[in-house]
Amino acid sequence: MNRTKKWAVLFDLDGVVLDTEKAYDGFWEEEGKRYRPDIQAFHRKVKGFTLQKIVAEFLGNDPQKEQSILRRLDALESRMDYPYIPGVLDFIEDLKSRGVPIALVTSSNEKKMEYVYHARPELAAYFQVKITADKITRSKPDPECYLLGAEALGVKPEFCFVFEDSFAGLEAGERAGMKVIGLATTNPREEMERRTNRVISDFVGFAYEKMIE
């Protein structure tokens, strides 16, 4: 890979930067049992989607259901401790030391991000650009969020790496024309490998040079 290019890196949040997916899997499985008991493994169907997309695609665009879910989701997110994926901060520090532009691209809304920054106040300073659900009109797997991130960083999509753990996120990054690296933190590694060329377990021992090799 060309080492003279100016690469940028765009990170998903949950399951990539933060080790939160087990909490969300449990939450969405319960919501699936409540509203869509006909769907097996509901949490896997909605992984990577915004709440609005979940309600539109699976719950008939019902505003009352959306508000009920939002209240329960807010209660969950307000008490989470948001642990980091192993090695991610060392990797981000390596990128920053090399002047690599970095963006956070998440299906989470700004209210959730307030909880994240309260628990992890150091996190906000790591990213030059932050794209949240409130800034987009189309949820992953649409590439809009990643294209907005690249534009805000001032880097062409083909010079961007994306780190994702959800199938919807992998598709969004690839449709944006970016180089996608999957994290096998929430989905089985073999399924991730069927959807993208490179998969890592976490960021332990991972660095810029490994990324571009």
From TrEMBL:
Signal peptide start and end residues: none
Organism (species): Sanguibacteroides justesenii
GO MF annotations in UniProt: sugar-phosphatase activity
Any one Pfam family match given in the protein's UniProt record, by short name: Hydrolase
Name listed for the protein in its UniProt record: Phosphatase
NCBIfam families according to UniProt: HAD-SF-IA-v1, HAD-SF-IA-v3
Cited InterPro entries: HAD-like_sf (IPR036412), HAD-like_SPP (IPR051806), HAD-SF_hydro_IA (IPR006439), HAD_sf (IPR023214), PGP-like_dom2 (IPR023198)
